[in-house]
Write a structure and sequence with these properties.
mainly alpha, two-stranded antiparallel sheet
């Protein structure tokens, strides 16, 4: 049985094209799922290390997502 949970994620066509174009030139990410998993972990780590926001691809500041008591998949601590 697969140990991963399955979710549905809706993206704009432009973002999906951006992901696919990135994957064509990337040898470290095998597919969309792996890229998204790595991106989510990197986002959370960036927030934890550097503050409450990160810049999105559009240049907009993205707020940190924080919940008390939720275990983090990265370090086993709360988000």
């Amino acid at each position: 049985m697969d140990e991963n949970e399955r979710i549905t994620l809706r993206l704009e066509k432009e973002n999906l094209e951006l992901i696919d174009e990135f994957l064509k030139g990337s040898t470290s990410h095998g597919n969309r799922s792996q890229l998204v998993r790595d991106a989510v972990q990197a986002y959370i780590q960036t927030i934890r290390e550097g503050g409450d926001t990160v810049r999105g691809g559009s240049g907009a500041l993205l707020p940190a997502i924080r919940s008390s008591g939720v275990e983090s998949p990265l370090e086993g601590g709360p988000c």
